[in-house]
Amino acid sequence: MRRALLLLCLPLILSLLLLPPPAAAQDEAVLAAARERMVREQILERGITDARILGAFRKVPRHLFVAPRYRGQAYGDFPLPIEEGQTISQPYIVAIMTAVIAPTASKKVLEIGTGSGYQAAVMAELAREVYTIEIFPSLADASRRLLQGMGYRNIRFRTGNGYVGWPEAAPFDGIIVTCAPDHIPAPLLEQLAVGGRLVIPIRYSDTVQDLLLVEKLPDGRLKKTNLIPVLFVPMIRANAR
């Protein structure tokens, strides 16, 4: 009798095994494949070869940092809009800004402009501590909830004016600015450690910006290098702490 029942159930068991995976699993597989293509085609093939950085971009699910209606485009080679008229940067721009400050497991970094939290998540995979400041309370609250919900415990959050930095936590080994002022904020230069690196888009007009790398040399001098043309949202200095 048991054998008969087993024979009767076998076609049902086989049919269940052959069923396609649930839609959610299919979606995750598609997104994971898109993320791998992003890393290979947009980052690795453009010359960023550091295995730790590539690993961080493979690990962080970029689609969680955009609105649901944009998730199908999350791994495209372009920026996307987020709330408050801000943007999540093109993956390559996030990658080059991360690479040039050379974050390591012993370093402390500062981010000006948390946005949806993607850059902070990438840096948290690489650095010892990440301090991130966002001027829009709605973005600051949403990114904090998301990043803490994802398990990040090495990120410190502040809502306020990024122009003034985070003086009580300085000095920082690396500083990333994800919005464009028309000059380098003096407080950020003061908070950059000797040997540290700051990367910032500088806005010369409404349409002309350059990504600038600033290194603080052992003698205190600043070495400045223009990297690539970029286009970031302007830095907002209202609502200072």
Beta-sheet strand percentage?
15-25%
Q: Could you give the count of β-strands?
A: 9
Note the main sheet: 7 strands, mixed
Helix content: 25-40%
User: Kindly, what is the distance between the CA atoms of the first and last residues, rounded to a whole number of angstroms?
Assistant: 78 Å
Strand order of the largest sheet: 5-4-3-6-7-8-9
Helix/sheet category: alpha/beta
CATH homology superfamily of the domain at 77-229: Vaccinia Virus protein VP39
- Name given to the CATH architecture of the domain at 77-229: 3-Layer(aba) Sandwich
CATH fold naming of the domain at 77-229 = Rossmann fold
Categorize the overall geometry: globular
Number of helices: 7
Radius of gyration: 22 Å
CATH class term of the domain at 77-229? Alpha Beta
Which stretches of 5+ consecutive residues score pLDDT under 50? Answer: none
User: Could you spell the SSE succession in H and E letters?
Assistant: HHHEEHEHEHEEHEEE
Calculate the mean pLDDT score and round it.
90
